[in-house]
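EI: anyone free to look at a 183-residue chain?
SC: sure, send it
EI:
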Amino acid sequence: MNTPPLTHEHAEFSRPVAVETLSLGESRQRMEATPEECAALAERFGLLSLDNFIADLMLNRTGHGKRIRIGLKGTLTANLTQTCVVTLDPVPARIKAEIETMFDSDVDDTEAGNDIDEGFDDPDEPIIDGVIDLGETVAQFLALEIDPFPRIEGADEEEMKLESDESSQNPFAVLEKLKIQPK
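SC: here you go
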């Protein structure tokens, strides 16, 4: 099932920037999520909590008219808590990641040519109606950095102990333990 992209009104951490407001060359942006935005992002990403989320970005605008490119490089940092996939205990984590992408105006390949190459393989993000959403972009990078299988220290030993206990028992004995006891 295809879900439509988040619009600025629906994104949990939206920071739309009109491309026309960016001057040619480099500019810096710092974004910090509010507690409400952190809570919404935590829900979106299935986290117990997102305590803070900050992005320090360097934007580099090149081109004008129909051909505009904006390079984005920066660092995102976040403190979050996930659920251990083995024990279901809270797993705190600190993420610090370098991010890099390119925004590009909507131009046909025949018009674009290969004359602008600033170290990027291909444009990653479109410029839609003259606007880029830096907040949603860095939120997507955060999603890529979140550990999909978080484990607390020692969880591997706990998992091996559970597996050995289960394999030494009758398979139905394990199910019996899960049965809800009447009061």
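EI: Strands lie at 16-18, 25-32, 49-64, 67-83, 90-104, 125-126, 131-133.
SC: 👍
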